[in-house]
Amino acid sequence: MAKHTAALKVGLALLALSLVGYILGPPLYWHLTEALAASPSSCSTCVCDCSSQSVITIPKALSNSSFTDCAKRDPEVNEDTEKNYAELLTEELKQREAESMEKHKRVDTALLEAKKITSSYQKEADKCNSGMETCEEAREKAEKALVEQKKLTSMWELRARQKGYRDGATKSTVKSKSNVQVA
Fold first, then answer.
1. Nearest to 24 by CA among 13, 16, 14
2. How confident is the model at residue 26 (pLDDT cuts 50, 70, 90)?
3. Confidence (pTM)
4. Rg of the Cα trace of the chain?
5. Residue 70: which of 59, 81, 61, 60 has the closest Cα?
6. What value does the mean pLDDT take over residues 174-178?
7. Dist CA 99 CA 95 (whole Å)
8. Distance between CA atoms of residues 68 and 159, nearest Å
9. What ranges does the record list as Polar residues composition bias (predicted)?
């Protein structure tokens, strides 16, 4: 038992250390790497002596000189680009608004449908409750009538017994006994 308890404590300690390492490890790692990057490196700067010409040369007739012009800022192109960007944003906003309105319509339609269904279920439930109340009233009336009928039956049985009626007697046995008494 002691071995199991010790093993459990060691396991929980390892789990706790792992959890602390998992939580605190990444922030500490990034702080350490930033600190090391900020410190001056012991490596000297590299001196590159690369030729300005590339290994593959393109003939001037095939080269596209407009490629270098692409990086330059052209005010007209920049203005058109900004206008197009604004138009695109406006168009996207309108499209999102239209989608939002469509979703809103669908939700409203679904809500109305749900209200209609709820109303019809409520009407059915009310009908059912009213039918149950009617049945309960009829059952109570029938129960009262049964009690009254039992009282009436027991009263008639008592009168019959007082007049000489016996259980199990049939008409033929009653007539033969009455004939015997008459003779």
1. 16
2. confident
3. 0.34
4. 52
5. 81
6. 53
7. 6
8. 129
9. 170-183
